[in-house]
Amino acid sequence: MDFRFDFAVDENENSEADAHFLLLCSPEHKQESREKSRETADLAPKSSLKLAAAKHQDEAALKKNLCVKAAKEHSIPQDLNKVLENKVMETVLGLSHVKLSVVERTCSGDADSEGIVSKSVSSHSDLIPGVYEGGLKIWECTFDLMDYLSEAEIEFTNKTVLDLGCGAGLLGIVALQGEAARVHFQDYNSTVIDEMTLPNVVANCSSEGRRMGREKDRKASKPPSKRPRKAEGSADVLSRCRFFSGDWSQVSQLLSNSNKPCLKYDIILTSETIYNPDYYSALHDTLAQLLDRNGHVYLASKVHYFGVGGGVYLFEKFIEDKNVFKTSLVKTIDQGLQRCIMEIAFKNSC
């Protein structure tokens, strides 16, 4: 029996090339995940962990020097209806999102200057390191974090929020609907921002989108809508948004080099961003640079990512060795492959 588990919102079945990243999810693999993660982060000698962390840092630095994706801020079009032109929307947990299969069929030329859609389709892969980092799909842990934000009654009112590695942007949209003062969206790929994130924000910031995002509607999610949504009533909400693409370090530098003082975020939301240990140093430095001294990071992740090597306990150990942040696992989800929500804050924060 094939136990491949596709946790992305997509109609297409994932290929064998994706199995390492999308993960195997039988009960046996679930137990193996726990054991492997504990072995990696808890049972291994500390010296081995430090050597592994140093190796990952060296490799990450090398990759950074060889290929760094420049940061770019994306402008918001004046005609918001053009953002939703030719887009087909679906609904999940009361939030609208662009239907990926339609994007795959229609996105070409200038609309995908990076060529990530054709590369992803032709290689049958949702992850091409340094080229495409999976932002076109909605991954499982996004929904875990959405649930936690609701259960824990995380307060967004008047807060400055960053949706880091945003993909479809659902976490940032939740913050917008929670009356955040400012919400910024970042993804590695510019195509993701233009073809997925921005349309999703526009769709959910319309009068209808805000109505659908209310908790009472979210509990009784409606069937997918196949009609494009008009962008009436979006401009006021979008005035609170900014959109960025590029490498984390480059986006941090872009924000720091502006004429205004470096922006600090009260809340940073991120999901499925610690699958590859080679990225830990860049992620840690970005959080350290952009998080407000009394801010909080909410990170959703699988306990272990087969084939890539990352996971909750390894990242927790990496943070511990850096001695900048304190962490706590605030929720564990045991359905399928074990997943966690981690809260991160500066050690000297209130």
Structural class: alpha/beta
* Adjacency order of strands in the biggest sheet: 1-6-5-4-7-8-10-9
Largest pleated sheet: 8 strands, mixed
Low-confidence runs = 1-31, 40-46, 60-66, 208-229
Average residue-wise pLDDT: 79
Order of helices and strands: HHHEHEEHHHEHEHHHHEHEHEHEE
Q: Report the β-strand fraction as a percent range.
A: 15-25%
Count of alpha/pi helices = 15
Instruction: Tell me the Rg in angstroms.
Output: 19 Å
Distance between the termini: 51 Å
The best one-word shape is globular
Number of strands: 10
Helix content: 40-55%
Verbal overview:
This protein is an alpha/beta fold and 350 residues long. The chain is built from 15 helices and ten strands. The protein has helices at residues 19-22, 27-43, 46-66, 80-83, 100-106, 116-123, 140-151, 170-177, 190-205, 207-212, 215-218, 235-238, 248-256, 280-290, 312-322, and strands at 72-74, 89-92, 95-98, 160-164, 182-187, 241-245, 265-271, 291-302, 325-333, 339-346. The strands form two sheets. The protein has an eight-stranded mixed β-sheet with strand order 1-6-5-4-7-8-10-9, sandwiched between helices. It has a two-stranded antiparallel ribbon with strand order 2-3. α2 (27-43) runs parallel beside α15 and α8 (170-177) packs parallel to α9 (190-205). It is globular and about 45 Å long.
